[in-house]
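PT: before anyone asks, these are the final sequences, not the draft ones from last week. 612 residues across everything. Please model them as a single complex and drop the result in this thread when it's through.
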Amino acid sequence: MRDGLVLGLIPETWRFELTQFPWVRRLLKSRWMPLGLILFNVFLFTVILMAGFFGGLTSPGNYNFGIMIVWILWWVLLMTVLVPVLSRFWCTMCPLPFLGEWLQRLRLFGVRYERGRNLYFGLNKRWPKSLSNMWLMNILFLATTFASGFFTVRPAATFVLLAAIIALSVVLSLIYRARTFCLYVCPVSGFQGLYSNFALTEVRVKDPEICARHKTKGCVVGNERGYGCPWLLLPYAFRRNTYCGMCFECLKTCEYDNMAVNLRPPGVDLLVDEKRGLDEAYKALIMLGIAVVFFVTFQGPWGTLKDWANAATLSGYLAFIGLHASWNLIVLPAIFLLFTWVARRAARQAVPLKKVYVNFSYATVPLGLAAWIAFSLGIILPNGSYLLHVLSDPFAWGWDLFGTAHFPWTPVLTGIMPYLMILTLLVGLLFSIDIALKIARQTFVEPEAAVRDAFPILGFLGATTFGLMWLFVG
Amino acid sequence: MRGQELLAVLLALLATVGTITVALWYDRSRDAGREVIELLAIQPKNGNWQPSEIRLERGRPVRLKIRNVETVSHGFALPDFGIGIAEIKPGEVHVVDFTPDRTGIFPFYCTVWCSNEHMAMAGRVIVTESVARASSNR
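LR: through. Structure below.
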């Protein structure tokens, strides 16, 4: 597969500017975007929180609006469409930091701007530099998955999780500047950031020359039309989707209409050798590892593991946490370390092992995303019909708003589900191989020997794919 | 700008406070004029029907909300009033409206084989001319 072409087919530099259409540009420059979407989701999450609160600890999950919408619909949409196609578009419309941001700005629609800068309520402090990475999000996300056995069966657990996230976002918004909570704390932000490097959509500057000549930089400091980048990026300079929350403020503040929303080939940001780090490497491996644990626990034939995750006994639950944490924090990263060490030895070049490890970890992103999409198929196809029930009776109070409260359980396409899972994994593997070969050329001095140097990594990717296939359909 | 800010605040209040208020009001208005009794379907080994004894007043409309809080299916029959639900799936809620038109003690049962103690999954409805308390365990 040649450099410069994704899968040897599409130029990595290919872009299609969506904002070239006047109505798209008008829409994204309106201050109702994304506020309108956020308000709709505020309504939806109010219903979810109510369903979680009134559902308590006893209501089975399949008939609870909160559980069904969050863990069946939202999670599946996030993994199958929102992240791979639309990058961090969920962050665009996420209602969880809504209250904190409202308090911080003291405006919902308008912009507070005086004497060359936006005005904010709160302490507006800087987040500690030592925590300005993905480590905290890695730990928080992993810790959240310890309770995954509760979230899908106990509505109150979903209520507590969402309420805690909202409360924490409010507190941090009043202490720290802008979207610090979303950037460095939100448990679901980290993987969206990493996986959005694979996404088909991006917000980028159109002509860097214009930005170079422009001195006031409204996209950074804000102006009367919008806020300086809430995600603390330099919109005219960033090259990866990781930390771009797609809030579209830079489209509003740019005086030269020099920001664009583009379609692009998948995975191109994974090749950007800039600000790569061990935190993101671990995020990639943790996500791959959790996909395995989730499948084994919740979709596999091992009922004992499910009982452990559901805390049927304390000792079982502690065993689940111990195995889950060890696998994701130690075993899988160590296995990957072994493969990268072999790759470095094979290359016989003086590249630091850490660099080899970090660089190649980005090659696991497409496969990790594919594993989550395959896992999501195993959730939505058998269980999606329950959504019709909870739409009619969201609080399990005996309502029947749309006449579907007693719609029978109807699995969809489950006969071909294993094949869809395999196909998804193979597509993920193909992209991972493509990325791994290109990263080998970036990492080692002899680009012509990339296939040889990447061979151990391709082995890891292949073995992981076949392992996942065996788990999913074996 | 000021008008749009007010509109946004109004929409935010509608999405939150408005949603909660409308949901609670709608639920209350649906049940208006009826005595509402929530009946939990539970296997005998886990506690049996709750409440297992329901006291009603003759001629007063009643709404039973029968909720299966377990992970096995249950059924419900109150044969003396011609009421039967073939299956209440795990998590499901079935609503039954009726007006007891005679006094007496009337048994109700689970009609789905839910466990080895299935036959013991039963309770009773006691209908009197007037009652101080509608249900013994609500």
